[in-house]
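QA checklist item 7 of 12: single-chain prediction sanity check.
[x] sequence parsed
[x] length recorded as 345
[x] structure emitted
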Amino acid sequence: MSYGRLMLDLAGTELSQQESVLLQNPQVGGVILFARNIESPEQVADLLAQVRAANPDLLLAVDQEGGRVQRLQQGFTRLPAMQLLGDQLLRDPVAGLALAEDVGWLLASEVLACGFDISFAPVLDVDRETSSIIGDRAFSDQPELVVDLARAFIAGMHEAGMAVTGKHFPGHGGVVADSHLEAPVDNRSWQELQEHDLKPFAALAAELDGVMPAHITFPCVDPDSVGFSAFWLQQVLRQQLGFDGVIFSDDLSMKGADIAGGYCEKAELALDAGCDMILVCNCPEGAVEVVDFMQSNNISGSDRIAAMRARKSVSWEILAVDNRRLETIAKLQLLMGTGQGNGKI
């Protein structure tokens, strides 16, 4: 099946009539929800049902990583920052890898139970304290540990029935700047990147279903920002690393993307560079502008995107009493401190 190549967001906790009409445009292929759209598991499931009623073929996404990035909160398990899993691995490698797999399974299971297809996870950046936007979202500042933990985490997500998206290619851990607020520049060499940040993407390329590039420029390697660079997306990611899954742009409304111009220019450059699906969030006017641009230019759909749809359905009722879920929550309570987990649906 061919999917429209734009993913956009919604304004509130219910689908408006205007949004319902927009979602039926063939250029729209997905919807991402943010914290403002989410009140409870029941409410978000109802909202996603409204979206499915408007267009049953959309890819439904959320950013649910744990730690600072957890859009689904009330009624969901409180998940740790991934750095805590990395620290646990250092204390006990066997238990650490097992917990990473269980947390990947738990995260994916709860997201799927609401009716989503994917969470944009895991983070494959190699970092601990350098990046203002990554930091404890990363498993570790050691590439080999990121590979081991991410592989276990991915196995858990896949077991739950969810496709995975590694981000932020080729690595956001080497710059302090937040690409939501400015356009980061990383002056490291190709060799430095190969020996550090690129390692998780190279090692896990065959296990990833999706990849999201960073809004970062590496001028010593290529003059274009990664998400708008055919060198990075085609020569490196596709050809050298052998990745054959879906390439999602990071949000084109981020300041890091503004170096490419206005919304239409950004959309065109990202698509031409090799993105299968582009995200335009938190700017309804920009999203409509991009839809009109794509429609007037007859942008063809992508067959790859179908592979990101949920592979299993999960009910809250069964998940609520699942022993693996309850045992994983108990382990997380110990890891994060008493009372940090939430065993209720």
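[x] summary fact logged: Confidence is low (pLDDT under 50) at residues 338-345.
[ ] second reviewer sign-off
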